[in-house]
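Example (one chain per record):
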Amino acid sequence: MKMNPWMSTGGLLALCVAPWASAQQSLAAAPAQAPLGRWITESGNLEVDIAPCAGAALCGKVVRVLGNRSMSAPGTEMAAADAGPALGMTLLSGLRPTDGRNTEYRGEIYNRENAKTYRATFTPAEPGQLLVRAYVGIPLFGKTQVWRRPAAEHGGVQ
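Predicted structure:
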């Protein structure tokens, strides 16, 4: 019986690909890192610490004020609609994972500039990045910001 050269190559290819595919499945099955710790907002105004709060939820409190730049009018100072101090303010509330792998969280985010609370998704991205998408109604009608970990000299988590 004559052996088909494609079958032997296919078998060899399967032996080479199987360990790689197994490693990829292991990575895909591994839970993502929860967005715990300190983050700098995209505007660079605030350092927010995300930690467990009520039950299984996560919350984010302002632990450091770094600036006062407007998000709605770049290049200008922010005029806060909320007269309360930013330091110690709860900016994020009710963050809960949407799946068992911690690839996305949903909760609420407070905008001090207009004193409104929005629904939001929080997605851990590249190392040291958190995608924050605030929206009204459905996520399609929103805006995504990239929050970053603070530099080590600021006492942040790298």
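Caption: The chain has a mean pLDDT of 79.
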